Automatic annotation (TrEMBL):
Alphabetical list of Pfam families matching this protein: HMGL-like (PF00682)
PROSITE patterns, A to Z: HMG_COA_LYASE (PS01062), PYR_CT (PS50991)
Documented EC number(s): 4.1.3.4
Keyword Acetylation: no
Species assigned in the record: Comamonas kerstersii
Protein name: hydroxymethylglutaryl-CoA lyase
Top EC class for this record: lyase
Amino acid sequence: MSYPTRVKLVEVGPRDGLQNEKQPVPAATKIELVHRLQEAGSKEIEVTSFVSPKWVPQMADNAEVMNGITRLPGVRYSVLVPNMKGYEAAVLTRPDEIVVFGAASEAFSQKNINCSIAESIERFAPVVEAARAAGIYVRGAMSCTVGCPYEGDVSPERVEYLARLMKDIGVQHIGVADTIGVGTPIKVRKAMEATLKHFDINDVSGHFHDTYGQALANTLAAVSMGVWQFDTSVAGLGGCPYAKGATGNVATEDVVYMLHGMGIDTGLDLDKLIDAGVFISDALGRPTQSRVAKAILAKRASAAPCEAV
């Protein structure tokens, strides 16, 4: 089996990872997290979202965070936008990329953004047009591509339908997301195959949550198809406010450990990633959710010299 020699990881911890936190996370902490992630080698960072603070209060400091980060050359900073109002606010902060989103489930679309799938695409069409005219790259995210908390299983035909609509409005890259983490490798493979009917393999990525412990297996299944781009979240941060019970995204540290063990380059420093994960986990008052980080932190602790009594 032939695997890609390099995999690109889009770090979504600052946005998707923190959006569902109940306690306020200070802007300074979010900015420091971005700085630590880019220090660890992250070249693609999803920083924040320009959604209504009424619905996602954790992202109310979006402009402050975007304006507060020290940008490094070669790093692409992206933001999620739900509509033209969000885009107009976002563009003032000079994002390199915007992310628009839709669901492969009608019920989830209604619960998440109060409109049908087709209506959501109509809403995003002028956003995509404006962004591309401004030279801003447009990435699309497809939620619930294998399962929905309201409808259950989602068919590949629904995924293909949404992928076609995204392609038709000018989305340049598409993410296939298992939003509630119920996917298994065969289901993920079918969702990917449906997406690849409309997008090239170089313009497709995976976004897997680990609710049922399947995220690494699903990542490997996609890698075996030649998919080489994935969204991951440091320390396994994450969850969706509209998907009850969904836990965090697959931990960046866990994916990096697996890929490096397969001889696949990510350009990321695992030790520095673990440190970034510890930083944000400490700020949230709980341990990292990364299995790899826990193991390496325990190894570090056992190797540390004992203090003289």
